[in-house]
């Protein structure tokens, strides 16, 4: 069995210095080699699993290594594929909503036009009637568009309608007309004769 020299021997003796040098060298070599092996292994592992955003896609394969929500950009436009898909879906939804709104507006306009066309009345005979009574008859049918003219063309206004009588009318009596038709009545004062 090998026996190490006793520490009681002089530390300056050549034999003690040799042993200490060998022990220190072995220890340093062992520490140095194990540190080198661990460093090289760690750097290889770190290179294999480097993933800054922790999205499971290695940085060297990740188009957006600092954005966990995106990892690819197939079209190369600088916007991630998930965001591209969201933008596309949003644009499609907006286009569908706009088309639906236009179709609804068109259908409502057609319905309103049909309803308006359906609202009509048969023009009553108003010639010979009191102007006030003629107005009341039209309003009872839902017609409020009215032009009153002085049948003698004297430019007079019918201030008190009950004092006038109807001489002529447009449209003619018996004709079916839309509710928004403007009716024209030519009138003279009750004591006057129609032209």
TrEMBL record:
Alphabetical list of PROSITE patterns matching this protein: PROKAR_LIPOPROTEIN (PS51257)
The organism of origin for this protein: Aeromicrobium phoceense
GO molecular function: calcium ion binding
Protein known as: PASTA domain-containing protein
Lineage: Bacteria, Bacillati, Actinomycetota, Actinomycetes, Propionibacteriales
InterPro entries according to UniProt: TSP_type-3_rpt
Chain spans, region Disordered: 38-86
């Amino acid at each position: 069995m090998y026996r190490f020299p006793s520490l009681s021997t002089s530390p300056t003796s050549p034999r003690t210095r040799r042993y200490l040098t060998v022990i220190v060298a072995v220890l340093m070599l062992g520490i140095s080699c194990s540190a080198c092996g661990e460093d090289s292994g760690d750097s290889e592992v770190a290179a294999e699993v480097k993933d800054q955003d922790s999205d499971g896609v290695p940085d060297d394969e990740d188009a957006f290594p600092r954005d966990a929500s995106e990892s690819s950009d197939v079209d190369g436009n600088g916007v991630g594929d998930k965001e591209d898909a969201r933008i596309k879906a949003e644009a499609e939804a907006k286009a569908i909503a706009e088309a639906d709104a236009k179709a609804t507006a068109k259908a409502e306009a057609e319905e309103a036009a049909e309803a308006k066309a359906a609202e009509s009345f048969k023009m009553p005979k108003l010639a010979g009637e009191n102007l006030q009574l003629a107005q009341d008859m039209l309003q009872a049918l839902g017609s409020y568009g009215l032009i009153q003219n002085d049948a003698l063309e004297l430019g007079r206004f019918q201030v008190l309608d009950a004092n006038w009588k109807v001489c002529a009318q447009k449209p003619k009596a018996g004709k079916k007309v839309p509710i928004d038709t403007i009716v024209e009545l030519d009138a003279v004062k009750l004591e006057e004769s129609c032209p």
